[in-house]
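Two proteins follow. First one:
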Amino acid sequence: MMPIFEHGGELEKLERLGISPENLLDFSVNLNPLGPPEELLRTLRERISEIALYPEPRSEALVAKLSEKLKVPRGNLVVSNGSNQLIYAVYRALRPGRALILQPTFSEYRKAAALCGTYIIDFVLSPEDGFSVPLEELHKALESSDLAFICNPNNPTGSLLERELLLALVRRFPDTTFVVDEAFSDFSDVPSSVVGNVLEFENLVVLRSFTKIFSIPGLRLGYAAAGENVASALREQIEPWSVNRLSQLAGEIVLEFERFVEQTRGFISEERDFLFSGISKVEGLSPFPSHANFLLVRCEALGASSLQARLLEKGIFVRDCSNFVGLDGHFFRVAVRKREENERLISALSEVADGSESPHGPGHGLARRQEPDNHRIVQDILSGRI
């Protein structure tokens, strides 16, 4: 059987089966397809010797620069080893009795709640309604919730809760702490961030990540913005020296890369439209509109795991979404990549959907170097021999 993939980018699990990730086109991980900014890479190479020095215990220099950039006081900011560290810190700091989680969404929200013994309210949105939020039902659920976790734009659906609607909820339910994960907000062409509103609402916590937009998952860097009391409680849950020196340096550098973020947003918007259009033309596949750098797709004929395995034969890896709460085995997610790569995905999906092969012959392009071994291994997986 295929291994269970909890998140995108878990290529090491494929490697254990004998599938080399070296030549795979990885559509499972939602990173900026433009890669890390070259200026960042150059600076890190020049200052690599600083790994011999201790980092600042609380990333004080980065906090100061964030404060200046965001117009938010330093006491309201907490830098962390990736925003995922903050997800767990939120539950430890606030100890909510009942947490509402808009589903389907990032699985770590639920895992962190369970670890703290928090009662979980899964508020599941329907794909039949385009994952729209039924406000009347949501209001009822929020009345009995101490905390609400909202990913905006949401992973894996790409859906977006409008900024004014989100703030209206925060205002209406002052006894509920709203934790808004904005890991993908830099990719959206609809302004939605509520970072600037944390001074207005004591019950608002915003999580941000440098990982996605700057394509630096190996460095692990994120931050939270919150009311001063909540920020202080979060800070107590983050161990000193959690963020390494190169990550701190990277954060200070990329805060100046506004043009890079704008260029990325325009690039993603164009390629997302292209990918959406191309997948929509493949019989049996239905992509959902997205405000992020990925698309959720429903496949009617094939199960997502079978489709994932067959694409692996062609050197392409996608994210099977059957382990998301509220989604069944007919949903998969693909990242938005560069044009040639997106074209290859669309072509491969068309071949898998109708059972045909590429007009250029088996193993055309990137898949050529991988297909013979991949084909044998995947067939073993599907037949149960692995």
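Second one, unrelated to the first:
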Amino acid sequence: MIKMRNLITLLFLVITLPTFLFAQDEKERLIQFSGVLVSADSLNQVSYATIIDKTSRKGTTSDYYGYFSFVTRPGDTIIFSAFGFEPSTYIVPDTLTEIRYSIIHLMTPSIMELPEFEVFPWPSKEDFARAFIEMDPYDDALRRAQRQLSGENLAFVAARVPADGQLSYKYEVNQHATMLYSKGQSPVNNLLNPAAWSKFVRAWRNGDFQRK
């Protein structure tokens, strides 16, 4: 009688053990789940998004390029969230036969409507009133531009701007030509040049040296 009971127990284990092991294997089967998160409107990467396995309460984050990779199981629900995007979910297929699975997941940008906000350069209404009273209504952008482009300002700026390569080359060529012209004789002195004196006297009579 005892032998018969032992035989029945052994037969029961032989029948049920494979089914139990198969179900246990399906439950514990792990998958390397990887992918890239991109924006649905521009296909740009979604950096540093949060990826959570809702089933196992584990997760990871995407890198700068939107790539992520972590271990999950078939049938688990994955939640994706990132600043500026709508949260989304993805269910890992339970029919996978490989131990690796990759996706490209699109995330929808969220539309954020912020209230209108105006920035003023005055800290209070009193400061605004004072600035309004003291302002010069004729000092507009055109008048300021005209002052900046006046002859005196342009001459002041030009006197402090260093010569570029073209002007330096031209000056060097003129100096070299002058040296060749006066080679073997005394250098040219315009103080003794009648043409230069005549030009100076004519400019002086015409008032070219008067300050404008």
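SUMMARY FIELD: DSSP finds six helices and seven strands in the chain. The radius of gyration is 44 Å.
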